[in-house]
Amino acid sequence: MGLVYSEPACQSAYDGDVHLLYKLLLHDSSHLNVHDRHNGDTPLIAACRHGNLRAVQYLLDNGADVQLTNEKQRTCLHYVSKRSFSLMDYLMITLLMPIMLLGYFLLRQKQRQSVSLMKAVLSSNINVDAVDYKGNTALHYVCQMKSHRLVPLLLTRNADTNVQNNDGETPLDIATRLKFKKIVHMLKKTQ
């Protein structure tokens, strides 16, 4: 079960259907940065929401605008930063963990996919310090999600560690409050 979009380009990007995206863009290039009527997502945002690396890469290669935001003022980078494991992922990892460490390998594969998705988006001219309607940057979200593999990627792009969200918290404040020591150490090292 997932999102249903009114725009075919957004739906095909969310579903990871690169072939349909190709057909849509071939027919009408305005589909590349179209906004969905319901939530304002673009195809790139939709692909990032669902973690479809091939669709993200295809859209970036064709010049999708990474600066566009949806109704929540979120860019595609916000959604890459907010990605977490689905309930199904957790169930599979938990069930397969005792069976020859299959759960561990599934977990590592999901983590590598998140890193690849983040690297793909960061390879563009994305504004890493863009704030959404809550005042959060991508760095705020990776700190909330305890994504210690993604924090260094944002820091290498000079993400501002001092941006305060609407609650007055910086990414360091969030990591400190949640007691994510490794992330706290990374953030303090850059200051």
How would you characterize this protein structure?
This is Ankyrin repeat domain-containing protein 22. The chain crosses the membrane at residues 87-107. InterPro entries: Ankyrin_rpt, Ankyrin_rpt-contain_sf, ANR22. The chain is 54% helix and 0% strand. The protein is an all-alpha fold. The relative contact order is 0.10.
Summarize the structure.
The protein is mostly helical. The chain has eleven helices and no strands. α1 (8-15) packs parallel to α3 and α5 packs parallel to α8 (138-144).
Strand content: under 5%
Please report the distance between the alpha carbons of the first and last residues: 42 Å
Poorly predicted sequence stretches spanning 5 or more consecutive residues: none
Helix content: 40-55%
Taking the sheet with the most strands, its summary is: none
In round numbers, the mean pLDDT is: 91
**Count the helices. How many?**
11
Rg is 17 Å
Number of strands: 0
Secondary-structure class:
mainly alpha
Spell the H/E element sequence.
HHHHHHHHHHH
Shape: globular
Transmembrane segments: 87-107
InterPro entries: Ankyrin_rpt (IPR002110), Ankyrin_rpt-contain_sf (IPR036770), ANR22 (IPR042802)
Protein name: Ankyrin repeat domain-containing protein 22
ANK repeats: 39-71, 134-166
